[in-house]
Specification:
The complex is a heterotrimer of chains A (about 150), B (about 260) and C (about 750).
Chain A: E1 2-7, E2 10-15, H1 22-29, E3 48-51, E4 54-57, E5 70-72, H2 74-77, H3 85-93, H4 102-115, H5 121-127, H6 139-149
Parallel strand pairs in A: 1-5
Antiparallel strand pairs in A: 1-2, 3-4, 3-5
Helix pairs in contact in A: 3-6
Chain B: H1 6-12, E1 18-20, H2 26-31, E2 40-42, H3 47-50, E3 52-53, E4 56-58, H4 63-69, H5 72-78, H6 84-89, H7 92-98, H8 106-111, E5 115-119, E6 124-128, H9 129-132, E7 133-135, E8 138-139, E9 146-151, E10 159-165, E11 176-182, E12 188-193, E13 200-201, H10 203-210, H11 217-230, H12 241-260
Parallel strand pairs in B: 1-2
Antiparallel strand pairs in B: 3-4, 4-9, 5-6, 5-9, 7-8, 10-11, 11-12, 12-13
Chain C: H1 25-30, E1 45-51, E2 57-63, H2 65-68, E3 73-77, E4 87-88, E5 95-96, E6 102-103, E7 109-115, H3 118-127, E8 129-134, H4 141-146, E9 150-158, E10 167-175, E11 187-192, E12 198-202, H5 207-218, E13 225-228, H6 245-255, E14 259-262, H7 265-271, E15 274-275, E16 278-286, E17 292-302, H8 310-319, E18 329-337, E19 344-345, H9 352-370, H10 374-381, H11 402-411, E20 440-451, E21 461-469, E22 472-477, H12 486-498, E23 503-507, H13 524-547, E24 551-552, E25 556-559, E26 562-566, H14 567-570, E27 576-582, E28 601-613, E29 618-631, H15 636-655, E30 661-662, E31 665-666, E32 687-691, H16 707-710, H17 712-724, E33 730-731, H18 735-739
Helix pairs in contact in C: 5-6, 8-9, 9-17, 12-13, 15-17
The chains are: A alpha+beta (about 150), B alpha+beta (about 260), C alpha+beta (about 750).
Chain lengths: ~150, ~260, ~750
Amino acid sequence: MIIELTVNGEPVTARITNPGSLLDLLRDELGLPGSKNACEQGECGSCSVIFDGELVCSCLVMAADAADSSVVTVEGVSPDDGLHPIQEAMHRAGAVQCGFCTPGIVVAAVDLFSRNSRPSSTQIKEALAGNICRCTGYGAIIRALETVAMGAET
Amino acid sequence: MHPNSIDEALAEMGDGAIPLAGGTDLMVEVNFGHVRPERVIGLRRVADLHEWDGPKIGAGVTWRRIETHGPKALAEAARTVGSPQIRNAGTIGGNLGTASPAGDGHPFLAAVDASIELTSAASRRTVAWREFFTGVKETVRRPDELITAVHLPAELPEKQCFGKIGIRNAMVIATVCAVVTRADDGKTTVALGSVAPTPVRATGAETMMSSIANPTSSDLAEFQRLVSDEVRPITDHRSTEEYRRHGAGVLTRRLLERCLA
Amino acid sequence: MTTETPPRIRVPEGGVGESPLRPDGVPKLRGEFDYAQDLSAEGMLWAATVRSPHARARIVSVDLAAALAIGGVHACLTADDVPGRATFGLEHPDQPVLAGDEARYWGEPVAVVAAEDPDTARRAAAAIEVRYEPLDALTDPEEADRRDEVFRRLGIRRGDQALRGSVVVQGEYEVGMQDQAPLGTEAGLAIPDGQGGVDLYATSQYVHVDHEQVVASLGLRPEQVRAHPTGIGGAFGAREDVNLHIHLCLLALHTGRPVKMVYQRSESFTGHVHRHPAWLSYRHEADETGRLVRVEARVVIDGGAYASTTSAVLANACYFAVGPYRCESVSVDGVGARTNNPPCGAMRGFGAVQVCFGYEAQMDRLAVALGMDPLDLRELNALGTGDAMPTTGQIIDTPLPTIDVIRSLQAMPLPEPATGLHHSELPGGSGLTTETHQVRRGVGYALGIKNLGFSEGSDDYAQARVRLTSNGAVVETAAIEVGQGLVTVLAQIARSALGISHVEVAHVDTSKIDSAGSTSASRQTQLSGGATLEAATRLRQRVLAHHEGDQLDDQGLWKGDDLLVTWADLGDGSWEETVTFRHPPTTGPDENGQGVIHADFAVAGHRAVVDVDTELGLVKVVRVDTAQDVGRALNPQSVQGQIEGGILQGVGLAVMEELVMKDGVILNPTFTDYLLPTILDAPDVEALLIEREGSWGPFGAKGVGESPTISSTAAIAAAIRAASGRELNRVPIRPQDVALE
């Protein structure tokens, strides 16, 4: 079947041939490999996207069900050049090691700050509770986002 | 298929068509290759299913909305469902369809004696929670029926508390979860998940506690013991029967203490 | 009298001691970094693996007909299709590329297929009919020991074996099977070159050893295979062994097409080695002043079906079985058992983690028996520079600031007791199980010691090349960046050695440079860093001497105030230096386990603060503070990152991570049931980096990756014991262990 949707602000037409997920569609058909597959079951958040305004795991959205919806991925959050302030804060804080969780965390953080520009540390942690990182121990990620919350990043 | 109304959705049911709401259960099966659905009925955009009219909660209402607007103990349960990503997509109806014994929202429905509305093209029926769940991941829903709403009683006990024991602090399947309610007249209900194939009520403990206006600490200890005895948990790779019994008793006692405070 | 002032190096930006931003940070943040998962090639096929559903079975027959009949299937290969060496292995090539006559563990690869797309590949794999005759599986390592099914036995005897102490403590301890669980699963792409050779891009920690094994099993000449460093989503030991590498190359050469494979999460759990579960029996004896007189230990680890690195892990466990303490009389017996459980191998900490849980529990028990403060007992016996390793007798000639570690931890202020906490800070979290008054706080300490680099006489080296380019320099290496920040620190070392800021690191394949060895054993900063430092230093000397200059900087080569040569001229590619760096030699053990076994050592200590709901057995790890012996922190932010990440893996082993096995089958190979710590489980961490000169690493640096995992688990266990009064002889500690008798 053919579906139409909006991805990162652009209208997109996609052909779906099997009951795969939106994550598969993004990575394999739409040339957007930023979202990662690490568990296929919504337990790690590395496939996080903003779907019709809500943060979801794209591995749990059936591709066909994304028809007529709007999807924002890490590629859409990133400016044409350089880094979004949240990405910049993470870069400076050393919050990126292997980087596999990073796109999901960036998207989850963007979603958090779009709803709450000054989250407390507890709110930051609760918002990122669905994103697993195996490398950093989360310390640098928390420090990065606390910096953004304090408005120290321009 | 993308029906726009419940009627359109119902017209598609049958012939192996699988309803899909948030995808948080079905898509896991698809991703693992356990299920290859040929026909899927997408319910996400069926507006009627999102309606929330006081005690009638549409099946398509997400845990995210319930977290913010639900009755206290149901909102508390909603906050423990999966992760923010899961709560934005997962629905109360979807989790009822899956009927996992560990479903975080189910003890609340049992504790307040909620019922579940099932609709087919030909009929609509409302089934008490007790009849709805028949076994591990089994319900009375017929293949041509959709879960369309949850009906809570018009009045809910003011004191209602939820608790869930899990091995880590987020994104965890309940080892034991429970809701305890206490009405002004002392009527106490105790419902638990993960300690039996379906959500259960600890009726012995309920009867005992409902007739005591001012429970003493030995009453509470007896209540705990009764709950532990009544539940039928198993040992699996997540926990042991012994711990679940112990946890069920301790947790419900604490929830009752909170209701009494 | 003439004095020659050596040319001073101008301090460039981004040199050692700073924390420059990582060069791959921007692409990773933008989602543009190429992981092995993201690679593709024109005409690419997809592969899938058929795995044994039995822990042990005779393979009676393999019928490919139904699979080959599926449209879009290009190849189905079995053991008969392996042209070269039938087996592979990191230390001993004992593991079949594809199981032939017998499957020896649940999940062992039996066949591989290549097809047009992943779905067809999986369907083809499912259509292959394998007839098995299940056999009795050996799953008990003690039984394996009795039957002499062992990969290695190691005996260590040092000192007067008749010596005894007046205060004796005995204990039995167990460490469950942890998994590395890197977020990026196994993935790779093999591209045939049309001339009988192949280029391999696959997740790895050690491309040269992959290369060796691919060459051997494919029966090719070394120059026909190139193994390329590839973007990888974490490793922690899971990527040292070959898993899909040979399969991909076999399929690529058989089909003449590029072949890609990505393991899904459950397959990843099955498809790589795990941390060895361990069973430890200890007897500690001290005199009445607390001086450790004798330690006896029996160490059993379950290596599973194939050797992997069991021999080296066992060695580490035995050599570090006493911990960072002096002890006159030592007896250790170690067994690396061979069973039909899934194979175990390298995981961060490599044997030293398991024994630390045992010996630190023992030290706490000994302190109680002596009526001594547990830190005083440790300080009294602390191992330091100039002492002999209690097990091997090796004299420690590197800084080993054990006493400083202890005192630093003691000096760190403890947090205020918990009052009125938000549920996210209480045990049980959003589950609302616990109120503040239902919590007991416990504090526990532990020390750990680990070797750095490979040991027992292994020829451990790394090659690096530094070349001048038109605007600076490039460091070429085959060393793998797994996220730890090697790519940043090698550039820093070259900057400080050359005196220039514009330095990049290029990852090159096996045909372009010699081995850098494995990214493991906390060795890359010291070895590849050492090679880089020497290459950059020599190159600078040569180029200055050639032009009779005295200074290099970002503009060019100077003599005094005269710019003699610009980079445009210097950087014509002709100036390069390649160095193979080796650490001081080590020896194998003699018949008593004695020898100069290790290349370097690092000590660290952890202090854990936990809040325990003792009635429900739920734990919140509040803080884990640490003092770590780092030699010299070349990139303090990266070191902090290694510490926080390693500590959280220690938290995982302490309270939530375990692969549950039954009859050789893993019951929980998913993230639903193999629980990794989330952000809400992460403790606060304060880290004190103890820097001392004297190690042979570049600028005195010591590897830092493993120390955070060695004693963090033991400290958390000690804290939970303090809060609950329970003995807790096993990790991970489960709620029932604390709550029930």
